[in-house]
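Quality-control log, excerpt.
Job 1 of 2 completed; input and output follow.
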Amino acid sequence: GPMAEIKDYFKPEFAKGLTQGANSDKFAIDSFTSGAAGKFIALYGLDELIDSIPDTIKEFQIQNRDSKNVIIHIPESFGRFKNLETILFDNCIESLPESICELKKLRFIAVMNNKKMKTLPECTATLPYLTFVNADKSENFVLPKSLQEKQPQKMGEGKIKKS
């Protein structure tokens, strides 16, 4: 529409505003259709949004609270968030990329309400600090055998749990 040519000019500043403030190490989306993140997605798309997030974030959350059954694809580039400790995907994915195994600081993986989600990549068993997996209400989810067999003393601070 009108002024579409300035869209790219404002993109970096718009994206930066999504992770600034008191929780600048946290990125969260509660809706794909409203709020600042929803507007960014409408203008630029989800992949552009993920590419615009600073590499330094520690927490990444996407919760689909909309009534629509939106399934998003998490790109392989997700492995660039080397400081991530927590990821949460609620009602929005069917798989996670192998690149999550590059997130060596990851402690918590939550994949709740993802009816099409079947499992995590096997390589998640190599994550040194992973202590908790929550797959509540993801009926088809099975914890990878490599995580089921992981010994508690080799799992960072505690046990892997499927809630």
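Job 2 of 2 completed; input and output follow.
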Amino acid sequence: RGEDIPLFLDNIIRGGKKAIGITGEDLFKEFLLNYPDCKIKILERIQWNDESAKFNKPTLCLLGPNGKSLDEMPKRVKVCINKKYSMISKKFLSILQYSRGMTFEKIYLSGGTEEAFEHKMCDLVIDVVYSGKSSEKAGLEVYEKIFGSDIVILGDKNEL
């Protein structure tokens, strides 16, 4: 899985072997927040440019009910987060907490974040939007873009 690539690669390089890995930039950013002393870096970024994608690339977003805005939400909300983005989301929500005075009860799921909204388990969702069709079907719209992801080739920090 893409989210495992940085951890495997870091361990291989720490073991003295040469290796490269390919994953999404969002998954690497999450890894860096969890392992800031890792031995890997981005060697090359490949721009993701798909016109069928809502934002031309996979984009981590804050989603909320259609027809509302973040300003209309209560100050205390439940937010369902795809757990592979827990650190990016925590950082983003801390900014919202500071700037808007909101507090968040966080629910982490491995998938089904939009379904959690449909079943009224949460008020907001943080997950990747690609085409936007599933979020629209669930009654959600993008409130804020958090992070747009390209493809990255990873390798040893010490290699030129």
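Post-run check on job 2. The first strand starts at residue 21 and ends at 24.
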